[in-house]
Each structure stands twice: as structure tokens, then as C-alpha cells.
Amino acid sequence: MEIKLSESFLAYKGFKYLKISVAVLIVTLIAYLAHDPGRTPNGGTWFGYTFGVISAGLVLFLAWFGVKKRQYMSGVDLLKGWLSAHVYLGVLVIFLSLFHSGFQLGVNLHSLLWYLVLFTVLSGMYGVFCYVRYPSILTGTRQGLTRTEILLELSELDLQAREVAMGLGDEINTVILRAAQGTQVGGSIRKMLEVEPKDCPTRLALLFVDGTSVSGDEQETALRKLSAVLTRKAELLRRLRTYVRAATLVRLWLYFHIPLSIGALVALVAHVFAVFFYW
User: Fold this and answer.
1) Which of 14, 97, 115 is nearest to 58 (CA)?
2) What is the pLDDT of residue 157?
């Protein structure tokens, strides 16, 4: 479902939420320039309170998307709309909260809220890149094959390689056995982010086979077949590792975005409490 969401959520219904965000921003700018608080603009004026309430409502709306997107019964089109609104209104809230504060930022709880919202939105922009870029990788790199099918084919290729290598000498057999037993996908974060690791046993085996010379037509034919089998295996490994890398990057993004979102909500509650009970 996320793959479908990524196809057109930015242009949802003719950029509906982009147009709404731009219109709201223009109206806010005009109102900000027109109003005269009689003192330095800040969050304590009627204008500041008005747009503070609007900004707080938007923050809560954006946080609710994390719950809403898991309600798959809502339908794909509705989820596209929520995601589109999440993106454009997220950018809008940065500017509305600035107008709310009268651009008065400092080292205090209230400014901390704005910075948390800012970093949450910035991390969300990277999330937009993930949704647009990586789902196409997740589907395209495997060329119609599921991960299970790729793993099954890799096992079959290992068997073929060991059968072909039987008549090519102990040294080649040792390399092929190491490629079958030692090749892995994933592991540490560094491994999950590598698409073509230089120490991959299959890659090393292919280099070794391509650089090996044998005598006799039968052995040369077997060597070419072995090279073809290893080449196919290396291609499947590259597809699988590309998938793992994309999924890992998306997961790492969530490890930043979600805590920032929670931090912004906590800071929002503290901000509202401080305003109404201490000011």
C-alpha cells in the first residue's frame, strides 16, 4: 500500500493541499503585516494566540497521521490525501508558528518547541524522498521476483555451481564452497547499506574463476558455465542487497522522525501549560 501511496500523493487532486497551504500562508502574511499590536509582535497578542491555536491544531493533525495511516480500511485514495496533507501542512506549520511568535525566538521552552517542529518537518522531507524514491527501488530491483523466490534461486545456483566445479580442481571447488557457505545479505547496519561489498565471497569467487585458465575444451566449457552461474548469482545478490539497503534507510529515517514527533508533542503540551498557568 505504501508503494501506491508514493506514486502520486504529492500531486493529490491537482496539488490540493499545496494550494491550500500557499493560500493560508498568503492570508497569514497579509494579516501579520496589517495588524498593529501596539508593541513588538509576540505570541501574547490576539494575533499570536489565534495562530498559536491554529499551529497547535496542525501539529496534532500531523501527529494523528501516524495513527491514521495504519487504518487500511480507510482506503488507498483517502490515505493518499492524508499523506499529501501531512507533507504540505507540515511545511506550513513552520511558518505559521513563526508568525504566532512574532519571529521572537530565543533560548527558552517556547523556542524549543519551534525547533523540534522544524527538525521534525526537515526529517519528514527526507521521509518524502524515501517514499518517492525507495518504493520504486523495492519493486523495480527485483524485477517481479519476491525475496523468497530470489533466495530459492540463489540456493539452486549454489547447487549448480558446485556440480559444475566438481571437475575443475580442488582450488576452484574450495572457492565455490566458500561462496556458497559464506555469502550473506544483511547483518550489521554497514552490511545492510552495502550493495556490492568488496569482501563478498561470491564476488571474489567470480573474479577468481574469470582469472583462471584451464586446459581442454571440456574444462573451458565448464569454466564458462560456472562463470555464467556466478554472474547470475551476483546479479540476484545485488538486487536483494539494493532492496535491503532501501528498507534499512527507510527504517533509519523512522528512528529519527518518530522520536522528534513525540518530542514536539511533549514540548507543545509544556508550552501550552506554561502559557496558560504562568503568563
Assistant:
1) 97
2) 95
Retrieve residue 278's grid coordinates. Answer: 504562568
Which residue has cell 490540493?
16
- Grid cell of 222 as nine digits: 565448464
Report if pTM > 0.85: no
Compute CA distances 86 → 65, 82, 238, 244, whole Å. 7, 6, 34, 27
pLDDT at res. 241: 92
Res. 144 pLDDT band, cuts 50 70 90: low
In angstroms, rounded to a whole number, what is the distance separating the alpha carbons of residues 91 and 98? 12
